[in-house]
């Protein structure tokens, strides 16, 4: 048995910090030990004070001021600095006993999860056998009201998929802010997206062909017949990964938070049962892993 943790990711404003807070409340109410790590160097207000805060190592405000960087460049700089100072994490996480769930709140800039190797290097450090050896699960949040049309749904799902491929840890998708999906039409619409398949695009192409529309959901991924094959290929790709299932989250509803927590527990245990442990020598981080 080892320590385990969840990395909470997703675009800006998706509800990551609110979800972390709901998760911590649930864990504490059930007398489970948790350790809250804030890795957003710009985050200010917290419902639960972080046990470890990247701002104690480096703050985005200072970096922007002193290095003359903008918010995105500044964020990358903060993470590069964190990677050069991994003892900041190790010193705090290493002494924790095995029953702790470590909740890691990430910033909303999705480039961190999609195309630069910073987060994979960080995850490697956290999970490395013989070092911190934390069993990690990734939770990727997308906001329900944002993904209620298929263009945004597929764009969001592709970014979630990209994070999954980059990190190589058990991954769950979460549709957040479900309380904002109102009315029968909205709920019916959302049901199609919670467990979607490529046929969503086909249905919409048929609707466009016969001129009919679906309230609040009239876009295909890319409009126009010439894009039909590309739309289908993208949808088929997502389908083949089995990635288009979302857990629903309404932070006001404790049952939805508890259900997600049990998925996190299961994902980590399943992964632990499946994955042979990698020896520490093979996981040594080389220069090529660093950004
Ligand atoms: N109605 C509703 N609002 C929510 C929910 N979760 C978050 N919010 C609101 O959405 C806004 C953004 O929430 P955060 O938790 O700060 O989102 P975040 O993903 O951490 O944001 P960044 O750190 O800026 O990327 C806040 O105003 C929250 O109160 C939810 O489940 N329902």
From TrEMBL:
GO MF annotation terms: GTP binding; GTPase activity
Listed Polar residues bias regions: 212-221
Residue segments, region Disordered: 203-222
Cross-referenced InterPro entries: Gpn (IPR004130), Gpn3 (IPR030228), P-loop_NTPase (IPR027417)
Keywords on record: GTP-binding, Hydrolase, Nucleotide-binding
SUPFAM superfamilies, sorted: P-loop containing nucleoside triphosphate hydrolases
Superkingdom of origin organism: Eukaryota
Similarity comment: family membership: Belongs to the GPN-loop GTPase family.
Quaternary data: Binds to RNA polymerase II (RNAPII).
Described purpose of this protein according to its UniProt entry: Small GTPase required for proper nuclear import of RNA polymerase II and III (RNAPII and RNAPIII). May act at an RNAP assembly step prior to nuclear import.
The name this protein goes by in its record: GPN-loop GTPase 3
